[in-house]
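Hi L.,

You mentioned the student needs an example of a multi-chain input paired with its predicted structure. This one should do, with 826 residues in total across all chains.
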Amino acid sequence: MTRTTSARRLLERGVERAFLGSALVSISSVVLMTLFIFRSGLPLFREVSVASFLFSADWNPSAAEPRYGILAFVVGSFFVTALALAVAVPIGISTGVFIAEMAGRRAGAILRSTVELLAGIPSVVYGLFGIYCVVPLVRAAFGGNGYSVLASALILAVMTLPTIVNMTEVSVRSLPRELREGSYALGATKWQTIAGVLLPGARSGIVAGVALGMGRAVGETMAVLLVGGNAPVMPTGPLSMVRTLTMNVITDMSYAEGTHLSALFATAIVLFGFILALNLFVQLALPRAGKERA
Amino acid sequence: MKSYARRRRRLSEMLAVSFVRLAAAFTVVALVSILGYVLARGFWKSNRMLYPVLSSRIDSVSGLSLIVNTEARLDEVSFQVLQGAFTDEYTTWKKIDGRDLDFFPYLADDIADPAAALGVDEVGYLVEVPGDTSVTVASVAARSGSLALVDSRAFAALDSAARDSVRVVPVRDLSLAVSPSVTELRENTQLSVIDEGAVARLFSGDVADWAALGGPSLQVRPLLPPPGHPLSDRLRDLGLLARVSTAAFACADWDAYLSLLAETPGAVAVVPAVDAARLGLDTIELARVESGWNLSLRFLFDAPRDSGKIGGISTIIVNTVAMILLTLLFAVPPGIAAAVYLVEYAREGRLVRAIRIGTETLAGVPSIIFGLFGMLVFVQGLGWGISLLSGSLTVTLMILPTIVRSAEEALKSVPRSLSEGSLALGATKVQTIFRVVLPAAFPAIASGIILAAGRALGETAALIYTMGSNYNLTRGLFDSTRTLATHVYLIIAEGISSDRAFASAAVLVFLLLAVNGAARWLIGCVGRMARV
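Structure written out for the whole complex:
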């Protein structure tokens, strides 16, 4: 009797340990990921100074005197992302508010499935659509060869839309009923309630959505790789070709060696560092948003 | 004054509300146009193809017929392909009908001068001569990948069983020849291609000047073949004689036809390709739009060959399924276990907070970073190479947060009373979790798992340097393996064919829609259970 009880207790404790171990997989992956990528990227700075890596736009790893400056890609990433968000944020917030406050049952259900499907479309399919539909449209409308910052931004805008819509919807919906009723009781119209009460109330959730959408846009690889043109030059305008940080990592990875390879990992450090900072900002600085999602 | 302000406010409110509605509509339009475009091009292809010959085809060219083994997948050939077939241009069928099969050209021995009939100096070394017409037909019927030229009359004289054992392939044998003045090089441009539809307009006089088709400024002078010449019937079939331009020349005989073609500026005439080749006439290529089904059953069930240039995607679909099953095998147990820990064991505190932050952060990491991590750890560190195992483990980490989150939600929605009842009956915590809580949460957990599988299905960036690009059927955990999404990317990146990229992407989208539907169905089940 006591033996079975103690065996059972052992089992209980063992299972709990196993559960805990599983729960630690995610966080240990993040830690390991950080360690491994830093370990592979940091050796670059034995040969290239951090300043010349970050603040030079001269990338020529195969020259006789190789140069590793990623400023053009940092600028490219942010240019593309900013343009994408300029399109996606107004549309995304509006759609989220529409689903939460204005849509009927049917329209809400349709929009929710739409957003879910948009989130599920693989990036390579977005890229395929981009090459054969968006790039020719940009070419026809604005000239140039079409592979551009603008084409990448348009694709990324649609890709970031689901994140922004979802976060907006959830945070607007989770606002207490009294807020709305109080506003209506004061004689505010529906729109005044949305613009004056609900949107400010849901601000932290919406900011979190935009930040996460930004993370998705900065980290996206395949879609922009197919429509951005991938020329390692400083983008000069919305129609110039662009190479982003992610494109730079994946393009040369198949053959890079030595310093060149660590330069690619160093590029990944910059990318990863930015994404980590963005995520920690969302989870630590915007506590309400974290709770809404949990 | 007051009412003016109110009206202005009402107007701006209306504008704002319509912007919101417009934005919501845009979201739906974006989805419909993306999915619609990809599916439409996946199922239907429409391409502008260039041919050196007109569409008109005939079973017997200069008294010879082309017969093929019945397995061949071609409906017609251009005269130039026919020439190539008997001058050693092909060693396989790839470029002709897309089969990866050796090419065996035969000639019947009763053909007087095959080289002249083909308009070449001599036939190729690879061409075999098995014997007379009936022997040749028998050889073609017996050997897949073979084809032969036989005398049309001798073939027609064979009994029907022999004739049915092979297939006669019609040949497109008419070129559009022009006077050298038309194809002259001017300012670095040269008229070399016209739409096939424009030929009738050249003959009818609707296009009276070559400049209208991008050529020199010259009057179009169509030539009509001599009366009674077999070409007249062919032209009539092509619809070129329905209405004839006033600028046309009616030629008295064949020599006049050819000499007028050479001497009249702006002259255009239909000439058998064999004569055009023999006499070195200037010809114009013809563009026609070819449409048809793109995604076929054959594409789904054939194995890819030659980097996916020919064949289908069957092995790639199997590889994709293998990757997803393996990934779920790795990801589901720890994912559910982590969720159980968070819901059933953990007390809010620093550890739980760290676990939550870790999970959320992992969910936000870009796939390319997962790819690099997988490459450093699984491919190089553990020495598993670019393989199914390395790729699956990489994707496992990617989808883990999705599974943890959705399982957590599912577990939280199980009523407390259920587990309390179980505990009250004397069951241990572990028994309660495995026998009561998990079964109750199962449908909701499953729908989360299915959505996670959808994410794995579409992954590319993380797999390129961890799972590789081998499109053959995977032979095991340590074999490089190409999935459908990677295939779509590589087909575009290698510039193979947009039709094939869209067909593969359409299959991918279909699988995703199926996955999504399955998840939704399961959620529906949960809803119904909750209502009961």
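You could point out the following to them. The CA atoms of residues 61 and 260 of chain A lie 6 Å apart. Chain A touches chain B through 91 residues (CB under 8 Å).

Best wishes,
N.
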